[in-house]
Input
Amino acid sequence: MKIAAKSPLIIKDLTHAYTSGSLVLKGINITVNSPEIIAIIGPSGTGKSTLLRCINRLVEATSGEIIIDDINFCKSKGILFKKQRRRLGMIFQEYNLVERLTVIENILSGRLGYMTFWKAARRKFSQKDIDQAFDLLDFVGLTEHSKKRADKLSGGQRQRVGIARAIMQDPKILLADEPTSSLDPKTSVEIMELISHFSREKKIPVLINLHDVNLAKRFADRIIGMSEGHIIFDGKPNDLTDDSLKQIYGGESWLK
Output
């Protein structure tokens, strides 16, 4: 008998409040099935970024569960926390690179979670890691920029480095918080193509916050619409109607 593969990520009744009694997330329930691309859409301030930051514990959930490999990540500590956290690749809206480091050094930073304290402190990377970093540099189209400092790159180039660094973590799940928000339309599509290609090739799920509904419909297998801390749509891109968008964003004049 064939045993169904377990879901790589299950979120149960997740809430988060930055101040007492003021919930940003209000009972979020999501089951992620590998290897799907899930676009999370919704107005600013509705909790999209907070959701991703709770998943990788950049902020702590107020209540609920985040199940990774059948273990509640919200309760993980010590070595178990480190092992789970390093398999959550994160692509940030503002890149989050170390500006004074070179491109290749930033990409290699994705392996720090797998290293001992002393090797990480001395940035003593294995030859295997170095070779992989250069392969990823080629994958994101920045081979000729390997020795350039991160602060000398354009926005699109920085985001490519951020993608490569996240992939260096050998992630089980990839999270991306508005990775195209400050990029021009052409570069935005190129960034989404890179993320999509990686997800398909490695067969890993991606949760990606997007403001651009058209990008979400073009690249996602599934769209989650949030409003005021609640999920009010969860379905296929083709099922996202104008009525659904009105419920998510409110009003209708912006649809015209």
